[in-house]
Amino acid sequence: MARHPPPASQSAPLPSSAEPARHRSRSSRASGRVTLSDVAEAVGVSPMTVSRALRGERRVDPALVEKIRATAAQMGYVPDPAARALASQKSAQVLVLVPMLSNTLFVDLIEAVHKELFAAGYHALIGVTHYDRAEEEQLLRTYLPMRPAGLLLTGFDRSPAARALVAASKVPCVHLMELGDGSGTPSVGFSQADAGASITRHLVERGHRRIAFCAGQLDARVMQRATGYRRALQEAGLYDPSLELLWPRPTSMALGAELLDAALRLEPAPDALFFCNDDIAQGALLEALRRGLQVPQRVAITGFNDLPGSDQMVPPLTTIRTPRSHIGTEGARMLLKLIRGEPVDPPSMDLGYELVVRQSS
Amino acid sequence: MARHPPPASQSAPLPSSAEPARHRSRSSRASGRVTLSDVAEAVGVSPMTVSRALRGERRVDPALVEKIRATAAQMGYVPDPAARALASQKSAQVLVLVPMLSNTLFVDLIEAVHKELFAAGYHALIGVTHYDRAEEEQLLRTYLPMRPAGLLLTGFDRSPAARALVAASKVPCVHLMELGDGSGTPSVGFSQADAGASITRHLVERGHRRIAFCAGQLDARVMQRATGYRRALQEAGLYDPSLELLWPRPTSMALGAELLDAALRLEPAPDALFFCNDDIAQGALLEALRRGLQVPQRVAITGFNDLPGSDQMVPPLTTIRTPRSHIGTEGARMLLKLIRGEPVDPPSMDLGYELVVRQSS
DNA sequence: CTGAAAGCGCTTACAG
DNA sequence: CTGAAAGCGCTTACAG
Question: Which Pfam families match (chains A, B) (predicted)?
Answer without folding.
Answer: LacI (PF00356), Peripla_BP_3 (PF13377)
